[in-house]
Amino acid sequence: MDLRSEQLADGVEKISLVGRMDSIGGHDINQRLSALVGSRKLRAVVDLSEVSFLASIGIRTLVVNARTQSQRGGAMALANPQPVVAEVLKMAGIDTIIPVYPDVDSAFSALTAPGGR
């Protein structure tokens, strides 16, 4: 698994995840994402467009980091999941905990809107 991070406008950070969020890839990404997201307050868009598989460890990683941001006064949104990943998010009810958007632009707009997450 790979993780790439870049700053977007208005202080929003785009975090792109690449690969399979399974027991092997999920462990490494959990540590790297937690170090990036858990260390400070931020508004983050997590781009899932290149995540081909999402297992329970990946779900846990996303939920824990979204909750950490919420507790710090920040926000996290998920964007552009592949159909199989979107289905897992929906079946697990994650879309009711972390907002999921069809693309990065929609997630960015939601995070930067007045009163946005």
TrEMBL record:
<feature type="domain" description="STAS">
    <location>
        <begin position="10"/>
        <end position="111"/>
    </location>
</feature>
<comment type="similarity">
    <text>Belongs to the anti-sigma-factor antagonist family.</text>
</comment>
<dbReference type="Pfam" id="PF01740">
    <property type="entry name" value="STAS"/>
</dbReference>
<dbReference type="InterPro" id="IPR036513">
    <property type="entry name" value="STAS_dom_sf"/>
</dbReference>
<dbReference type="InterPro" id="IPR003658">
    <property type="entry name" value="Anti-sigma_ant"/>
</dbReference>
<dbReference type="InterPro" id="IPR002645">
    <property type="entry name" value="STAS_dom"/>
</dbReference>
<protein>
    <recommendedName>
        <fullName>Anti-sigma factor antagonist</fullName>
    </recommendedName>
</protein>
